[in-house]
Amino acid sequence: MERIADLIRAVADFPAPGILFRDITPLLADVQAFGHAIDLLAQPWLDMRIDAVCAVEARGFIFGTAIASRLGAGFVPLRKPGKLPPPVIGIDYALEYGQDRLEMRADALACGNRVLLVDDVLATGGTLSAARRLIDESGAQLLGASVLIELDALPGRAAWGASTPLHALLHY
Questions:
Q1: 48-171 CATH, one of 1.20.1250.20, 3.40.50.2020, 3.40.50.10140, 3.40.50.720
Q2: Which residues are catalytic?
Q3: Could you tell me if 147 and 166 are in contact, meaning their C-beta atoms sit under 8 angstroms apart?
Q4: What is the percentage of the chain residues whose pLDDT exceeds 70?
Q5: pLDDT tens per residue, range 8-34
């Protein structure tokens, strides 16, 4: 775990002044550490019979596809508007700096599918909560979420709530 944490680079004032950005690219470049991170992110869900892993564009895709492979599950991308062919379903949501939208193919999940949600970072919780609502709207069963990094000073976990498991590998 220490090796994984050592590969997360802190970049001050990016993408704006006052922001401390957690750069995951050194972790992605280290095949052994990245593989270990995927194993640790997938571990809590190994015995849960996951049908599909949903992940948020774009960095969530990196982790989501690898975790889906480890779990023997399909992968469903949650994308920004206009990136998927119709028909799609979507959720509009508020960010701390504006509005955004997530979409997925309307037929990507079947009613009752057992789903794991994956993203790279949990910060304020807006994106993960929107993804949860989108999965719920599909009729699938969200079993939990895995994130590489949780920013503990921000309200992401509170926004997620305690009723659905949330696994974070690293805490800052």
A1: 3.40.50.2020
A2: 59, 96
A3: yes
A4: 99
A5: 999 999 999 999 999 999 999 999 999
